[in-house]
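Let us work through a complete example step by step.
Step 1: write down the sequence.
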Amino acid sequence: MRRVLTYGTFDLLHYGHIRLLQRAASLGDYLIVALSTDEFNASKGKRSFYPYNVRKEMLEALRYVDLVIPEDCWEQKQSDVLDYKVDIVCMGGDWKGSPRFEYLREFCDLVYLDRTDGISTTEVKERLSDGGAAR
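Step 2: predict the structure and record it as tokens.
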């Protein structure tokens, strides 16, 4: 069984998230999503619209996701890979080359997937604040 792990906040779940999770799931047999906790987001200067438990519930409802675990800090990635026997860490292409992930190549494969054009949580929040509709 090939286990795939990805990380994210997955706030305001949208079709870009779904497509990323679908492609990540297609890389293996079991998809683990490490979901940023509210406390971890706060430490990064971010605040989610939905609290952790709601974001977790939404991810768990998706057929592509087998397990959701909390992401509490940057430093947990190596232990996640080892503890969950992960074969592939999969991240959005905007993280390519980041030292936050590149060191994991010592423990597993690392795959970067391009983001879906035309959608991001930041863009959704901006459009909502401007009263705009989905495109």
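Step 3: interpret the result. The chain has a mean pLDDT of 89.
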